[in-house]
Amino acid sequence: MNHGPVLFLGLVTTLVASWTGFVALPHRQLGGLQPDISTNAAGAIVAYPAARSGEAAQGAEVYRSLGCVACHTQQVRPENGGGDIARGWAKRRTVARDHLFDSTVLLGSSRLGPDLANYGERLGTNSFPLVRLYDPPSAATNSTCAPVPFLFEQRPIRSSGPSPEALVLKGTAAPPVGSEVVPMLRARQLAAYLRSLGTSVELPEALLPLVEEANAPK
């Protein structure tokens, strides 16, 4: 008995089922995602997510090229799936819409360092501490982050005085007397990308947890 047609039909069925499950259904589910339009507290209409600035978009490529995704995730689990929200990494879980404008989605899978999905908002009004890149232990106790001093330039202090961008370094990380360490373009781009990371906007598929008013009348 010739089993060739049956085998061929089985192979075709397997390929079609695989394509349907891995391509067609995800595209149907996520392919039509658009930015969420809402009104903020000031009454202005805002869209989330927004495309990153050119500097931040270039910083994403620096982040990717340095392999930061090997140690940091950008995917916060829901409250019943782990302690990410309790750690203060974000106010809600990560959803597909958060990465709508990312040409390369840097979700990551290992957490040798903290999740960075909401890192920019955790910084608040503070600027990104570039010393974290040049000499991580100087900025964070017991940091295991790999330093990237090649994104910085050590140079003599100019006659006009120290650069306002010069890092404040102490101990063995400090440059020789009369010299300073300043960030180069790629360091500034990476800092801009990290400042751009934020996921605290409430979405229809990812609501923020309710916060009880401390002074609410009883």
Account of the 3D structure:
With 218 residues, the chain is an alpha+beta fold. The protein has one domain: Cytochrome Bc1 Complex, Chain D, domain 2. The strands form two sheets. It has a two-stranded antiparallel ribbon. The C terminus is likely disordered.
What structural keywords apply?
218 residues, alpha+beta, two-stranded antiparallel sheet, 6 helices
The CATH H-level superfamily is Cytochrome c-like domain
The pLDDT mean sits at 88
Number of strands: 4
Measured as a percent range, the helix fraction is: 25-40%
The main pleated sheet reads as: 2 strands, antiparallel
Overall shape: it is extended
CATH top level is Mainly Alpha
For the biggest β-sheet, the strand order reads 1-2
Named at the architecture level, the CATH assignment is Orthogonal Bundle
Element pattern in H and E: HEEHHHHEEH
Give the helix tally.
Answer: 6
Secondary structure: elements and pairs:
Layout: H1 4-30, E1 36-39, E2 45-48, H2 54-65, H3 119-123, H4 131-134, H5 136-139, E3 152-156, E4 179-183, H6 185-195
Antiparallel strand pairs: 1-2, 3-4
Brief overview, please?
The protein has 218 residues and is of the alpha+beta class.
